[in-house]
């Protein structure tokens, strides 16, 4: 395992008791009883509160519904996994043999869960919510500067659906055209089609990502920003 000192430097926090850090990095595939799931449970609640507080003060005029959508975008699995990759958590994860073989160190779900577990670990080690806030906002970094209450925040599939509904058009049909690659590293090719418009395709490492890519291509074809 790479030096935990280097990881603590990236986390912007030095643990008083490294057992919390080690536990946060331990996936259930290593041990059914001694893993990061309880820390993840704790960190999930801390994450939601800190992000909600940040958004509440940053956007004082926004209504609850929009703030809820902004928070959901920041705490969703993909966003947390992106934070995890920036912190290079994959280099430090403790995974069982099966997860190692299948590439678990780069899986979104595992990286996202580990980010939450680390937040829980910092809270227990420091007994200080303000420390958690400082660390978490630093982890997100420029991503917070990019947060916007503009409608474009919505994902491409949602934007496409709203556009079609506003123009009284049928909803799009998504079809998986092909799937290739190893089980742990697949690429999906998805076609998106609506009436009277040539179909477009998109690809991604999951069906969802491929559908979003196809929706983006169709929005571009329709001239929707």
CATH class of the largest domain: Mainly Alpha
Percent helix, as a range, is 55-70%
CATH fold name of the largest domain, please?
Ribonuclease iii, N-terminal Endonuclease Domain, Chain A
Terminus-to-terminus distance: 45 Å
Q: Widest sheet: strand order?
A: 1-2-3
Unreliable sequence segments: none
Helix count? Answer: 11
CATH H level of the largest domain: which superfamily? Ribonuclease III domain
Count of spatially separate domains: 2
Number of strands: 3
Shape: flat
Major sheet details: 3 strands, antiparallel
Using only CA atoms, what is the Rg?
20 Å
What's the helix and strand layout?
Blueprint: H1 4-11, H2 18-24, H3 37-58, H4 64-75, H5 77-86, H6 97-101, H7 108-126, H8 129-140, H9 142-145, H10 156-166, E1 173-180, E2 187-194, E3 197-204, H11 207-222
Antiparallel strand pairs: 1-2, 2-3
Helix pairs in contact: 2-7, 3-4, 3-7, 3-8, 5-7, 7-8, 10-11
Descriptive terms for the model:
225 residues, mainly alpha, Ribonuclease iii, N-terminal Endonuclease Domain, Chain A, Double Stranded RNA Binding Domain, three-stranded antiparallel β-sheet, 11 helices
